[in-house]
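Section 5.1 Outputs to date
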Amino acid sequence: MSRARAKAHRSLAELTAQSGAALKALGEVVGKAERVLRLAELCRRLESEEEKVLPFYPSSLAEGELDDAERLLREAPGEPLAQAVRDYVGLERFWQRFNKAKLEETAVGRQRAALTRGNRRLRALLRRYLDGLAVNAEALSEPDAPPAVSNKSRPVQRPPPAAGAAQSHQVHLE
């Protein structure tokens, strides 16, 4: 009798440990499911109006091909792989949305790269333009050197000559 009682006690302890592990695993699954639902809600709020109205791209299949695909989905699959794929048909909309988001992400990345290249090019042009406007201090210190200005809207004036320097003669033509 004590053997049976000890065996029952071990079985009960094992069952308790297994049920605790199962509860823990199920708790993790519930936690993941709640996180997925929160993320889905967050994503839904971030969708544009166009995405809410037309969330998927139109099918590229012809009318006959679309009918054939629907008929094949209604038929019972004969192969185990086909059955496994059929079990995940419910995720088809998810993968459509996922792929659409990936395509848009790639397009935005390419657009950003193009804009970055354009920005660099414009900055280089602006730098060259501003370098053309800058007047070298050494060139201004020479009394006989005329100032070279490429921008006519901003005339450059020479600094007054240093004390004791030779005064240049000014000639007025009329």
